[in-house]
Design brief:
This protein is α+β, with helices and mostly antiparallel strands. The protein has three domains: 44 residues, no CATH class; 93 residues, 3-Layer(aba) Sandwich (D-Maltodextrin-Binding Protein, domain 2), CATH 3.40.190.10; 97 residues, Dipeptide-binding Protein, Domain 1 (Dipeptide-binding Protein, domain 1), CATH 3.90.76. The protein is built from seven helices and eleven strands. Strands 8-9-10-1-11 form a five-stranded mixed β-sheet, sandwiched between helices. Strands 4-5-7-6 form a four-stranded antiparallel β-sheet, with helices on one face.
Length: 272
């Protein structure tokens, strides 16, 4: 049988296997369904999936190109690349952009939408833990979004939520968002880097200054605009992510200085 799959299709399947989202049997079945011969599928599994399996441990040091002494862990103020990177390392969102630029659930497991795209119902993941030990639920999600749209809010994300008429928890694991007008792109809107999920205080407000997120790494030290140290969160719900023991972010505005640090092995990675 001749292979008739496209390289893109096989690449997507291989990425899913390398990230642990599908096992060997599912990978082989998927590859064969795409038209790949069994010997070829087994070779791809050995050379591109098994070989790509991440090793755990070590400290990952990254040089970032910006950062300000006015930076804050308050998500309403996120603007620098330093803080945007921190948000995706330390916290989670309801949805995220997949490697193939699609939209997938993160803390939202699935969602339904009314025919007029005005009522959105999100089913949230169960058993997700904040760094402070609190279990994530719909009250946290509602408070996290409402934080940016409240009266007097100066959040940079406020305009994104202009169509939000109501946000409410329907039990512990269901979030309902009512829009004043239909918007089929709401799941994409929720990936905005300001809209991280934070623990609610029991009164409908969020606590961001205790540094508790649900992400793969816990903030251990943070010097605004200069440096941040994070350690792996032992109870992180994504078992296929966060493989380093720790991460260090350093703001190095000058590209030549970042390159020099990379060459001398003071960094493992840098933003160009």
């Amino acid at each position: 049988m001749a292979d008739r799959t496209s390289p893109h299709d096989l690449t997507v399947l291989t990425r899913a296997a390398a990230c642990g989202r599908i096992n060997r049997r599912a990978f082989l079945e998927g590859a064969i369904a795409l038209g790949v011969t069994l010997p070829t599928a087994m070779a791809v599994w050995s050379k591109r999936v098994v070989a790509a399996a991440p090793s755990k441990g070590g400290i990952f040091r990254v040089g970032l190109d910006d950062g300000n002494t006015t930076d804050s862990m308050d998500p309403a103020t996120f603007a620098s690349r330093f803080m945007i990177t921190m948000a995706h390392t330390h916290q989670n969102f309801l949805t995220e952009i997949s490697p193939d630029n699609g939209i997938v659930g993160e803390l939202a497991e699935s969602w339904d939408v009314s025919p007029d795209a005005r009522t959105w119902t999100f089913k949230l993941r169960k058993g997700v833990e904040f760094h402070n030990g609190k279990t994530f639920d719909a009250n946290d999600a509602a408070a996290s979004l409402n934080y940016h749209r409240g009266k007097g809010s100066k959040s940079a994300a406020k305009s994104l939520l202009a169509l939000f008429a109501d946000i409410k928890a329907d039990g512990k694991n269901t979030l309902v968002i009512e829009l004043s007008d239909g918007n089929a792109d709401l799941p994409y809107v929720l990936t905005d880097y300001h809209l991280v999920m934070l623990p609610a205080d029991g009164e409908g407000k969020v606590s961001w200054d205790n540094l508790a997120g649900t992400g793969g790494y816990v903030v251990k030290a943070f010097e605004p605009g200069v440096h941040a140290t994070l350690e792996r969160f032992a109870n992180y719900w994504k078992q296929d992510r966060a493989h380093f023991d720790g991460i260090e972010f350093t703001a190095i505005p000058d590209v030549n200085a970042r390159q020099a640090a990379l060459i001398t092995k003071s960094l493992e990675a840098m933003i160009e």
